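dude i think i finally got it to work??
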Amino acid sequence: MKNLPNYPSNFWPSDCWSQANHHLNIEKEHERMKSTVSSPIASSFADLALTTRVRGALHSDPRTRQCGIEVECVDGTVTLSGEVPKAETALRAQQLALAVGGVDLVHTDIKWVQEPLIKV
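look at this
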């Protein structure tokens, strides 16, 4: 490997040093912003926004609108829970949740409660 010559400290123009410092400041700011986004407060706001979008999707579909399915989101993972009259309704709820942007995974704790054939 070749040795580089030792340049005097005033070899590089001062604007090169200021550009290098500016670049370092941008990198530091980027790291600070990444740590802010991953904070618990930012994460809980993202979870709340995702919960709202999934609930909106469930309320926009006539098959899932009246079912009262509960939605909980943690870091892009959605958990659906509640009781529905048909298995197809639970499947449709899962499909709607998966279609929402930002949803990575859907856990379904929806119970299918079959209505009795004969009502007393």
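The chain has a mean pLDDT of 76.
im so relieved honestly
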